[in-house]
UniProtKB/TrEMBL annotation:
Residues 15-472 form the Major facilitator superfamily (MFS) profile domain. GO terms for molecular function: transmembrane transporter activity. It comes from the Bacteria. GO terms for cellular component: plasma membrane. This is Major facilitator superfamily MFS_1. It comes from Conexibacter woesei (strain DSM 14684 / CCUG 47730 / CIP 108061 / JCM 11494 / NBRC 100937 / ID131577). Keywords: Membrane, Transmembrane, Transmembrane helix. Coiled coil: none annotated. The keyword Transmembrane applies.
Length: 474
């Protein structure tokens, strides 16, 4: 009996380690390109507006594909779909590693964006395969890897770009998913598939067709002008298609996404909080490196940090996230996942508030990032995953966690663009002229951007408090 228990625990730990490695594959690459953008711009002779498509294309691909791939995992088996997604993700790395033009590089990022489905598929496998007493810890480690991987990506990217070539970051995007495929194949049990039904292709087209123009408008609004006909037309067209998608899904007996499920309070409150958590997460990854790389002799603020040193400002946050992933899972098991979500969003708000009022010494930035990107983000991500898992039927795990990932990605797209506009406009959020005038970032703009993030995370805290309490797993 003792031997059987030991074997069961060992198998669970191997499954958790394999799924965490798979999660890291996406988490590391989501941010690695950001510090390399100036080098890519120089090497390929592109302008900053064109190079920005490397971020926009990745987020667009992730947001559009994740709900669909999560649903396919529910239908055909999550473990099988996870290995397929990891293989596609590695193929994107190959394309990027050998890219000789910006167009090839953008295509590589589109392919890599499909890796956003790794997280919902891994969460679904964890729910199917792990014993109840290990589930929260496993979800905590996988969720913690999202913030940890993002921070690690920024640090590694700085080292690679400063000492080698930006092509090297894509070799990382090949090695990690290939290692994850081997581990998943060896240690992750097959996930049960649902009764196969016809995939709602029209629903998938309407959802993708609605999300793509909305995210395109958000990602390019600063460059094109928020009041331009192109941006307004994209927003209106995207919203209209999403309304049509909702009406279509409500009529389907086997919808792509169960809209009625999304409307339940345990689900919509978590997804609404995820929007603001995603906003804050991507805002931090933009604001902190930009702030610390500013030259105090010319800008009057910042620390004139190199690309590598800028990434190191997030290192303590990354290490805290690594430690607090399983701690957050333990909290969820003992007190229910609502408490870590409230604590996480409140801690993120506190970190942003600190950065808004104090960022003239390195320790201010270290502490603010630690609270917002390390401790707070890890608690929130773990809690959201656990709340979705306990709030939806097992057969709908993939589509529900996929939608949560998609909403967080939309929040991230909003966050990176809004704070960039605030920083460049010196705090005048609607001032397109100020952004286009050629003026650099201002300290007042950073203050306002951090303050806006703090306010939005307070809204997320209120939404977290409105989430119905879920039962503990003890």
């Amino acid at each position: 009996m003792a031997a059987a228990d030991t074997a069961r625990r060992s198998g669970a730990y191997r499954t958790i380690a394999s799924l965490t490695l798979a999660s890291l594959a996406y988490a590391v690459m989501q941010m690695m390109v950001v510090p390399a953008l100036p080098a890519i711009e120089r090497d390929l002779g592109a302008d900053s507006s064109s190079v920005a498509w490397l971020i926009s294309a990745f987020l667009l691909s992730t947001a559009v594909s994740t709900p669909v791939l999560g649903r396919l995992g529910d239908m055909f088996g999550k473990e099988r779909m996870l290995m397929i997604v990891l293989a596609v993700f590695a193929a994107g790395g190959v394309l990027g590693a050998f890219a000789t033009s910006l167009e090839m590089l953008i295509a590589a990022r589109v392919v890599q964006g499909l890796g956003g489905a790794i997280f919902p598929l891994a969460f679904g496998i964890a729910r199917d395969a792990l014993p109840a007493d290990k589930l929260s810890m496993g979800i905590g480690l996988m969720s913690g890897s999202f913030g940890v991987g993002g921070g690690a990506g920024l640090v590694l990217s700085g080292l690679i770009v400063d000492h080698a070539s930006w092509h090297g970051i894509f070799w990382v995007g090949i090695a990690i998913p290939l290692a994850a495929i081997v581990c998943v194949r060896a240690f992750v049990p097959a996930s049960p598939a649902r009764t196969r039904v016809q995939l709602d292709w029209l629903g998938a087209i309407l959802l993708g067709g609605g999300l793509m123009p909305l995210l395109l408008a958000v990602s390019r609004g600063r460059a094109w002008g928020w009041g331009s006909p192109a941006v307004l037309g994209l927003l209106a067209g995207g919203a209209a298609l999403l309304v049509l998608w909702t009406l279509w899904e409500l009529r389907r007996r086997e919808p792509l996404i169960d809209v009625r499920l999304l409307a339940r309070r345990p689900v919509w409150t978590v997804n609404a909080a995820a929007l603001f958590v995603g906003f804050g997460m991507y805002a931090t990854s933009y604001l902190v490196p930009q702030l610390v790389q500013a030259d105090p002799l010319h800008a009057g603020f910042g620390f004139d940090a190199s690309t590598t040193a800028a990434g190191l400002f997030l290192l303590p946050a990354m290490l805290v996230g690594l430690v607090f992933g399983p701690v957050s899972g333990t909290l969820a098991s003992r007190f229910g996942p609502k408490l870590p979500l409230v604590l996480g969003t409140a801690t993120m708000a506190a970190g942003f508030a600190l950065l808004a009022f104090a960022h003239d010494a390195p320790w201010h930035v270290y502490l603010g990032a630690l609270l917002s990107y390390g401790l707070g983000l890890t608690l929130a991500l773990t809690a959201m995953a656990n709340l979705i898992l306990v709030g939806v039927p097992r057969a709908q795990t993939g589509e529900s966690t996929g939608m949560n990932t998609m909403v967080r990605t939309v929040g991230g797209s909003l966050g990176s663009q809004v704070v960039a506009a605030l920083v460049l406009a010196g705090g005048a959020a609607g001032s397109v002229a100020a952004s286009a005038s050629g003026g650099g970032p201002t300290e007042h703009g950073f203050t306002v951007a951090f303050a806006v993030c703090a306010a939005l995370l307070l809204v997320a805290t209120a939404l977290s408090a409105a989430v119905p309490s879920a039962p503990t797993r003890e």
